[in-house]
Every structure is written in C-alpha cells, then in structure tokens.
Design brief:
The strands form two sheets. This protein has an eight-stranded mixed β-sheet with strand order 5-4-3-2-1-12-13-14, sandwiched between helices. It is of the alpha/beta class. It contains ten helices and 14 strands.
Amino acid sequence: MIRLVAIDLDGTLFKDDKTICKENIEAIQRALEKGCKIVLASGRSFESMVNVIDTVGLRNEGQYAIGLNGGVLFQTMDGKLLARNGMKPEEAVQVIELSRKWTDEVNAQLYDGEGVFVERWDTTTDFYEKVTGVAPKVVSDLKALAERAIKIGFFLRKSDPSPTGPLDLAKETKARAEAAKPNHSACLISAPYLVEFCDVDNNKGTGLQRLGEILGIDVAEMIAIGDLDNDLPMIRTAGLGVAMKNAPAEVKAEADYVTERTNNEGGVAEVIEKFVLQ
C-alpha cells in the first residue's frame, strides 16, 4: 500500500505557467482523504512554498515537506524545521569563490533555510522574485554567511529563464562545476537556468528517507514524482520512482514509471489515480 507521495514542483506539479491544474489539486485532496501523506519536495524554502502549500490544501497539522533539495524538512502548517543539513562552511566558501570567477556567467544565491542571499541584484534576481514571490536579500559578502549555507545556486545569466528552456547550458555548467567543486559537495541541475551545490549527503532522496524514519513509513510504501536531475535521488529511493513525460531521457531511464501526461496535462493526478486511489 502506498502511504506517502513525494512531489516535485517545477516541471512536475506546476504547469509551465507556474499554476497547478485542477486535476492535480483534486487528486491530492482525494489521496489525503484516503490517509495518504502528500509531501512537496522542492529546491525551494518554506517561504517560497507557502502559496502552493495553501493552494493544494496542505497547511495542516501532520503534513510535512522537503525543502532546499533535502537540506531541510519542515512542517507545512508553520514552517517549523524538523531537520537541517548544511554545507561544510569551508566548501561553501570555495563555491562562492568559484562563482566570482564566473561572474559574467552566473549570479550566486545562498540559501540558509530562512532566506535567500545574493551579492548583486540583476535580471536573474528579478526572475527569481517573479517565480517564487520571494525577494533575495543583497549582502556585501556571501562568505560571511558560509556557516549558515544549506545550498548555493548558480543562476545562469545567459540561459533561457523559463521552465521549458533548453538544458544545454545547465549541463555544460554542471560539467565544468563538477571538475572544480569541493570534494564533499554535490552539484546538480534543478532548472534549465539553475545549477546548485549542496552537501554530498544532502538530496531529495536522503530527505525522503529521513522523513520516512520520522513518520514510520518505509520507502517501499512511497512514490516519488519528478522531472529533473535533482529529482533522481528520490526517484531512485522511493518504492515507485516516477518521471514525468516531459522529463529528459536520462531521468526517464531511471524511473519505474513514466507518465502518459505532461506537467501541463495533470501528470501528477495520473500517478495518484493509478497507484493510490485505485
């Protein structure tokens, strides 16, 4: 029996215009009524997930979410943290220094579980605020926040800033970053315009395992649904790993099931109806 469904946001629950289709909302509500846990699993923080939490009806006691790609687990009712796993401060400093070498190509964003911080405001921060509803805070030196860093994102300044943009530049940037990143940090793609760094033991898969231990739910009783590189750890971890129809081929190749519908057509509802409600 499926007791928990973990759902990525961008490219999965969200349509390309960042809205959520009626079919997905209704399926989530029916799954909740059946007693199934619905867990949003995102690279975002609680602050930038509040609107979607309210839209799908998860602002209740006993509901939880995975944020910052597994760096935090929190209660959806009030954002109270259950667990936090940050980067090694010295490695956060190295990543920040790398971003400064690539200053014409990326704008670094540091996430500490409470806010998002940048050293400069440009078109990338305009886009981030528009998409998430959260305004990053500008600071003079991100390295001063290294001890608080949970993840650091490289927002690609020359990419197509849209959920459906090509992944070529993100893949190229990730390949270069893999060769230059600190040893205990992982590098992944979370959007066509965003390459992120976090602790090597910190991802949506380990976040899902930790949450399962807290709730007493085995990973075999879980479904994880996603579409990109940063979703692969939870797709591999869950008893049923699902890739969206709109996911890249390399993500589909590792999934147990690939949806027949895209994120614009209610792919999440398809999974819930097929594996939870029937």
